[in-house]
Write a structure and sequence with these properties.
single chain; alpha/beta; Oxidized Rhodanese, domain 1; 7 helices; 7 strands
Amino acid sequence: MAHLRSLALAALLISPCPALAQSVHANPLIDYGGFEKLVREVGPLREARRIEWARFAKEEKENNAILLDARSAADFARGHIAGAVNLPFSEFTDAKLKAVLGPDRQRPIYIYCNNNFSDNVAPVVSKRVELALNIPTFVNLVGYGYANVWELADVVSIADPRIGWVSSES
């Protein structure tokens, strides 16, 4: 019986304990639970704001809207939809978003990412579907207070003349 108690104690000591893990690795600048809550709250809004190409192309040209490309600066430089501005997702901060998007947080913002293109070639190489850049871009924009975000839902080709693809490789 003592042997079983020793094994049970050893198992407790080596198994991860969520409460202990949180206190040992607490970082007040990272809130995964808050991120999960934000994702749950933003999910229905995102689904309602995913729109087809024809509507996306029309509306991103209206109402002082901004077309935001959150891919890397290098990929943006290699090619993007005409009229887009670039702020790489990894650089989102309050200050940089305000500098690129302006002070009006109600301004319509239209977003797209690699996974909106069927080509799967540089600079729009497809990401895993569950990790497509549109997802965290949308969540982060809303989390930063930009509630008027719209996302391209369709899959198009950079070769489609309707897209207005601007390429440095042409």
